[in-house]
Amino acid sequence: MRVKLGFSGMITWEKEGRSGRLCLFWTDSVDVHLLNGSKGHINAIIFSHDNLKWRFTEMYGNPDTMLRTHFWDLLKRLGDSQSLPWLCGGDLNKILFDHEKRGGGGRALYLLRNFRKALEYCNLADLGFRGPKFTWCRGNSNSPSNSTFVQERLDRMLGNSGWSDLFPNSIVHHLRLWGSNHRPLLVEVLKDGEEIKKKTIAFNQVDRALSSSNWQTHQRLERALEALQYKEERYWQQRSKDLWLKNGDRNSKFFHRKASARKVKNSITGLLNNNDVWCEDKEGIANIAESYFHNIFSSSSPHSSDLDMVLNTMEPKVSP
Questions:
Q1: Are 192 and 168 in contact (CB under 8 A)?
Q2: Does the model's pTM come out above 0.85?
Q3: Helix (H, G, I), strand (E, B) or coil at 19
Q4: H or E element: which one contains 49?
Q5: Is the C-alpha dihedral spanning 8, 172, 157, 135 positive or negative?
Q6: What is the rounded CA–CA span in Å between residue 139 and residue 219?
Q7: Which partner for 248 in 218, 235, 244, 281 could form a disulfide, CB atoms 3.0-4.6 Å apart?
Q8: How far apart are CA 69 and CA 26, in angstroms?
Q9: pLDDT tens digits, 82-98
Q10: Contact status, residue 130 vs residue 174, Cβ threshold 8 Å
């Protein structure tokens, strides 16, 4: 199966309850280190080739309500075992809130509360979703009785604050039902660069046709773009710091690349003059810079009465 699906690695574990297995597949773009596993989970560290490291836990929650405490205890133990960015999820067979179930009888409120408390203990938050609300269904949808057709959101993805910081633009998709009464979940991890590109295109389109009708959209896109650029800057600052601590003290190619990159970053290739004309020649750039600073530090020759008005508002004080 692994080869047929095009994966380079695989971990399987016999599942609890009904027949089947927990499976974790991965491609050669990552390395996977198995930490532990059981009939209800596979817990592993993911090493990506861009020097990112995080934890993924695939979980299966036993549908037997008498065994729920075992699930909470397992989740808490996993939460205590690592401090890495953590992605966790799967078929949990549990809901967080009443509105995540439609049809059939209600869930006991203490079960919902215990689930929420366990997630709070582990610093895990629901990552949300796009697509249909419910991930599982059972019964005959053509029946006039609502109780014979039940839908619930039993499958979900959870992440701690470290995961959200590492992948702030991740999106969980609820895919279509196909050959099962559970919807597959797809976690799409968008890099900040991709999201910035999309937001920049949208911002430029609005900016070119700016009017009172789209001013609020313009402001919203501007704030979103600034936030993404700030996150990307912090990310690369951290990456650069890590690499510098590792290689920066050596007289190596790394040092010269950093110096060259700084030189390129600090270079001025062109400036806009007072007539909104872009100048790229050295003499034009020098004239624009000289004129700019000359205007800043030159006096506008204000009238003496204007100066007196300003000075009269200032309280005389002798510095110690």
A1: yes
A2: no
A3: coil
A4: none
A5: negative
A6: 48
A7: 244
A8: 31
A9: 889 999 999 999 999 99
A10: yes
